[in-house]
Every structure is written in structure tokens, then in C-alpha cells.
Write a structure and sequence with these properties.
With 102 residues, this protein is mostly helical. It has helices at 6-32, 37-59, 69-100. The model has no long low-confidence stretch (mean pLDDT 87).
């Protein structure tokens, strides 16, 4: 195992704390019903996007200013695939839901 610098350890700890906070907020909102369901879903979505950015920055150490072009292209391709899979899943679920109500 290679030796970790204090800067790297600090980065991991900051990322861990942010990840825990961004995970705890949606769980707390769902548990306490503090917001209406639509706003709760919005907060969950925002927290999920922020969670992805925290993981990219603090755990994968991807900085968009110094990241090689290949890494950025791989991230864009991954985002497109995720968008297609999640969007397609929602499209299918909403279509089935509307067909079941008839």
C-alpha cells in the first residue's frame, strides 16, 4: 500500500463527510415527511446529482480543468448512457402507469 499524503487524506475525509450529509438529507426528508412529496423528490434528485459530483471530485479526483480529454469524453459518454437508461425506464414506467389506469 502506498503512503497517502495529508492532502489526499483530507480530500477523502471532506468527500466522505459531504457524501454522508448528502445521503442523510433525503433519508431525513422521507422519514419525517417534512416537505410535500413533489419537493421531496426534487431534493432527492438534487442531492443525487451533488453526490455524483462529490464522488467525481473527492474520490475519483477528476478535475475538469486538468483532466485529460479521454477522461472527459468517457464521462460524457457515461452521462449520455445514464440519461438514456434512466429516461427510458421512466418513459416505460409512466407509459405503463397511464395504460393501467384506462
Amino acid at each position: 500500500m502506498e503512503h497517502q499524503t495529508p492532502h489526499a487524506l483530507r480530500s477523502y475525509l471532506i468527500g466522505f463527510v459531504l457524501a454522508v450529509i448528502l445521503s442523510a438529507i433525503p433519508f431525513w426528508l422521507v422519514y419525517t415527511h417534512a416537505l410535500p412529496p413533489q419537493r421531496t423528490l426534487l431534493v432527492i434528485g438534487i442531492a443525487a446529482v451533488l453526490q455524483v459530483l462529490v464522488h467525481l471530485r473527492f474520490f475519483l479526483h477528476i478535475n475538469f480543468t486538468t483532466t485529460p480529454r479521454e477522461n472527459v469524453l468517457a464521462l460524457v459518454f457515461t452521462c449520455i448512457l445514464l440519461f438514456l437508461m434512466v429516461g427510458g425506464s421512466f418513459w416505460i414506467m409512466f407509459d405503463l402507469h397511464s395504460r393501467m389506469l384506462i
